[in-house]
Amino acid sequence: MASDLRETRVGGGELFKGDFLHAFRDDVRLPDGQVTQREYVVHPGAVMVVPLLQAANGELRLVMERQYRYPVRRTIIEFPAGKLDVGESPLACAQRELREETGYTAREWARAGVLHPVVSYSTEFIEIWFARELRAGERRLDAGEFLDVFTASPEQLHAWCR
After folding, report:
1. Gap between the Cα atoms of 124 and 115, Å rounded
2. How far is the C-alpha of 13 from the C-alpha of 130, rounded, in Å?
3. Is 87 left (phi over 0), alpha (psi -120 to 50) or beta?
4. Are 89 and 80 in contact (CB under 8 A)?
5. Could you give the domains of the chain?
6. Choosing a second label site near 60 at 20 to 30 A (CA), which of 6, 52, 93, 108?
7. Three-class secondary structure of residue 79 per DSSP
8. The predicted structure's pLDDT at residue 61
9. Residue 109 burial (C-beta neighbours within 10 Å; 0-12, 13-18, 19+)
10. pLDDT tens track for 99-128
11. Cα 153 to Cα 2, 56, 92, 134, 162, distances in angstroms
């Protein structure tokens, strides 16, 4: 039989509300009855798209991005991604982000699953989508968004992960 590991909120409140992030510090009762504090960020959720570009010869390429990420002060290689707008479905967000950031649209979409990247201090979830049968178009980057789009082979991606 599994233990009851739940923590119950008994107080606390808002620490910060910005344009994007909303932070809280709550008093919680632990399973053993003690009370402690938990700080966390409420996040609207996000998507990440794995765009699969297939050449006429059958060669598979992944559409990727290079983007400077200020919090870590580095240029990062990543897949197209972005946060959900209020009331937006994850699929609609994935389609929008792929088009805005890369210019590509896709005729075939498949949901791969959901990832909770930082459950210890955030409500963020990231839905992962595969996009196939890509068609090139014009990018529509958000104001203040700067990134380079490129393609890589699955073998290159695997080598970068070592």
Report:
1. 9
2. 38
3. left
4. no
5. 8-42 (no CATH), 46-160 (3.90.79.10)
6. 93
7. coil
8. 96
9. middle
10. 999 999 999 999 999 999 999 999 999 999
11. 44, 15, 27, 16, 15
Distance (Å, whole) CA 131 – CA 8: 40
**Residues 127 and 110: beta-carbon distance below 8 Å:** no
Q: Are 62 and 50 in contact (CB under 8 A)?
A: yes
Q: How far apart are CA 74 and CA 57, in angstroms?
A: 35
Nearest alpha-carbon partner for 41 in 62, 65, 24: 24
**CA-to-CA distance for 100 and 48, rounded, in angstroms?**
13
pLDDT digits (tens, 9 = 90+) for 67-86: 999 999 999 999 999 999 99
Structure tokens that stand for 129 in this block: 């989508």
- Cα 140 to Cα 35, 101, 102, 127, 147: the distances in Å are 49, 6, 8, 22, 11
Q: CB of 78 within 8 A of CB of 65?
A: yes
Closest CA to 124 of 29, 51, 22: 22
Residue 77 sits at φ, ψ, to 5 deg, of: -90, 130
Q: Whole-angstrom distance between the N-terminal and C-terminal Cα of the chain?
A: 39
